[in-house]
Amino acid sequence: MAEFFATTDPIQDYAWGSRSVLARMQSREVPSATPEAELWVGSHPSGPSVVSVDGREVTVIELLQEDPARLLGSLTSALQSDGDLPFLLKILAIDAPLSIQVHPSPEQAEEGWQREEAAGVELSASTRNYKDRQPKPEIGVAVTRVETLSGVRSNAELAVLAEALDQQWLREILATGRPVLPEVLQLPHDQAQVALADLMHAVDRLPTHDELGALLRYISGRHPGDRGLLVALCMNHVILEPGQAIFTPAGQLHAYLRGTAVELMACSDNVLRAGLTPKHIDVPELLAIVNPEQEDTDPIDAPAGADGLRHYPLWDDRLSLVCAVVAGGQDRELPGNTCVVLCTDGELTLEVDGLSHHLTAGHSVWCRTDGSSVKASGQGTAYAVGLNG
């Protein structure tokens, strides 16, 4: 028998978060008391969702341990070998640039976890790189216009920039013939500071409407003196319009800059940082896991199919992600493998096998469908994650 589970999702108060996006989405007072960066939907130990079951509140972690079939029905076969969910769903409310970062592959995450465990590095330590033993591929879908950095520009593009901005440090790095990223990250401190001063001097001479100049002013205004600005210059500036997505595989250098997005990822919090952050930066470890061949950074278009849903390509056959825009009295049918639905605007009524649930913006609901499709009616937008057993 199908079942809905009313859900409360935690919000992470990272400094780059917005004081208005999630508060306004959830019809709370604006501005919020603290920055609100990410709403998490899932079972990650750092912030599990809480569901209502038989009149008691339990975390999704606890329910998966006690009675996974109660939450997922036959979809329990898609769980990981440790009984955990293979995903974490988020809303990102980005009001300042995130750190430039990269995530490990499955093998790198396991090896890094084992190494830090053996070395006795506390999970809570600021120098800990591997918080869990999972990889972290991810896809971000733009709710509003979203600006990102992803991958490293070609040497030909960088050579043009070096001349246009008269950046001697970049000319010298390119002349070595070695990969650019390690050279930038390993510049001695005094050389990096000279390069930053030269870059900002060049940026100040650019017209106010220049796209690259505006980008670098925005980043430097929030991270003054951070050598991550040198890395940002070397990266592709990718803009997502609402509905477009960007996929970030293991080893891909990336950073979100501003906007609101829905993000689906493997259930991990493993991050190696390259700049634009006061947090721990481990350059040797980052360079050990970064992919020297950065992936294509073009936005992914996912137009609505015959079923009226946007279907996004994922890295794992066990997972699916669809977006349903419900409007004008046109109901949508969410797939029968749906296990959680997240609403980003409006109000929706979800129905399955005679049961219904009212869902509002900024909230999610877990649902056991037993293979039946979920009808979504009302006015709003929903993202549904499905599991394939």
Automatic annotation (TrEMBL):
Enzyme class: isomerase
GO biological process: carbohydrate metabolic process; GDP-mannose biosynthetic process
EC number: 5.3.1.8
Gene responsible for this protein: manA
Family recorded in the similarity comment: Belongs to the mannose-6-phosphate isomerase type 1 family.
Chain positions recorded as Zn(2+) binding sites: 101, 103, 138, 254
Record's keyword terms, sorted: Isomerase, Metal-binding, Zinc
Phosphomannose isomerase type I catalytic domain mapped to chain residues: 10-153
Pfam families with a match to the protein in the record: PMI_typeI_cat
Cofactor(s) listed in the protein's UniProt record: Zn(2+)
Gene Ontology cellular-component terms listed: cytosol
Protein name: mannose-6-phosphate isomerase
Active site positions, chain numbering: 273
InterPro entries linked to this entry: Man6P_Isoase-1, Mannose-6-P_Isomerase, Pmannose_isomerase-type1_CS, PMI_typeI_cat, RmlC-like_jellyroll, RmlC_Cupin_sf
